[in-house]
């Protein structure tokens, strides 16, 4: 309840700041929050961050994919994660994203570092 309202208010303060929106969405998705309204908000924020970066930033795509996976939309999560892997140029990051993609394909949610 209260956390959700805070997140919603915070997101409205910076509607065009993709890093801010992505961080808020990841705060929900990274903690594996399962409340429908929180996940819905995370999905909206992550999708907006992807839209703002025109799908060129792997971090935003990674967050959106995680939200989609937690929501049970595994096909969408896999497709989004494939885009994240494809747009990432940095080798170590690409490798980490590929591992996440492999997890989704195996129907497993990867652990996150706190």
Q: In a nutshell, what does this entry contain?
A:
By secondary structure, the protein is mainly alpha-helical. It contains six helices and no strands.
List the helices and strands and how they pair.
Elements: H1 2-13, H2 18-30, H3 36-52, H4 58-70, H5 74-87, H6 91-105
Report on the structure:
This protein is mainly alpha-helical and 114 residues long. It has helices spanning 2-13, 18-30, 36-52, 58-70, 74-87, 91-105. The relative contact order is 0.12.
Element order: H for helix, E for strand? HHHHHH
Query: Rounded to an integer, what's the Rg over CA atoms?
Result: 13 Å
CA(first)-CA(last) distance:
22 Å
Q: Can you tell me the residue ranges where pLDDT is under 50 for at least 5 consecutive residues? A: none
* Total strands: 0
What is the typical, i.e. mean, pLDDT?
92
* Structural class designation: mainly alpha
Shape descriptor reads globular
**Biggest β-sheet strands, sense, barrel:** none
Helix share bin: over 70%
**What is the count of DSSP helices, taking H or I runs of 4+ residues?**
6
Taken as a percent bin, the fraction of beta residues is under 5%
């Amino acid at each position: 309840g209260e956390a959700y309202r805070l997140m919603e208010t915070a997101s409205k303060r910076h509607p065009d700041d993709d890093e801010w929106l992505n961080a808020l969405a990841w705060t929900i998705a990274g903690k594996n929050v399962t409340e429908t309204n929180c996940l819905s908000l995370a999905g909206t924020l992550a999708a907006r961050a992807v839209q703002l970066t025109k799908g060129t930033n792997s971090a935003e795509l990674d967050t959106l994919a995680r939200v989609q996976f937690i929501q049970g939309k595994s096909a969408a999560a896999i497709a989004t994660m494939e885009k994240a892997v494809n747009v990432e140029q940095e080798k170590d990051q690409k490798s980490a994203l590929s591992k996440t993609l492999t997890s989704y394909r195996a129907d497993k949610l990867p652990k996150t570092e706190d």
